[in-house]
What we know:
The protein has helices at 5-11, 19-44, 52-72, 77-83, 116-128, 156-168; strands at residues 102-113, 133-140, 143-153, 174-181, 190-192. It is elongated, with a radius of gyration of 47 Å. It starts with a helix and ends in a 5-residue tail after the last strand. A five-stranded antiparallel sheet has the order 2-3-1-4-5, covered by helices on one side. Strand 2 and strand 3 form a beta hairpin. Helices cover 44% and strands 21% of the residues.
Amino acid sequence: MARRPNQQQATRVRAKSDPQGSTKLGFVTGVFVGLISATGAFLLWPKVSAPEPYLEEVSQLGEETSQRMNETIDWSFYDLFPKAEVATVGGYQQPMVMTADSTVIYYLQVGSFPTTSDADLRRAELLLLGLSPSVEKKQIDQTTWHRIMLGPFESQVELNRAQALLAANEFESMPLTRRTPSSKSIAGTETTGDRDG
């Protein structure tokens, strides 16, 4: 009997190769071998630690450093503040004797100019800052001086705020205090800290 080539091919079972199956198997095998190798190396590897004298030296150095830092910090400034004397801008003024029937009103003089145009220019600059200046005229040695004044301020705190605003905008100012008598007193207004010009 003669075999037919078609029948022979039909009866054979061909084994198909799976290229993805071998890749997956290789990956899983690699991970498994890697884990076993890492575990073995961890268990069998000799443990290395720093020598004892080195550890002692490092701990001593840390203690010395912290002691030096504590010694170099000067905490005495807490004691200095209550004892310190702070110079103020108004330090050149004569101390004013307060009486029971007078009140103090604070002013700032921001400039004094011999011409009206210079005084108006300074007044305009102060108006742009949101302040309300006034111009006072005073005759000194046949010259009329135009003083730019801010105030009245009812407290030293308000005066200091205005003076800080002026200083921040590079304006020099001179604080003035005026003692006004109460309604019981007949005397006129006295001014301290007032300078000519």
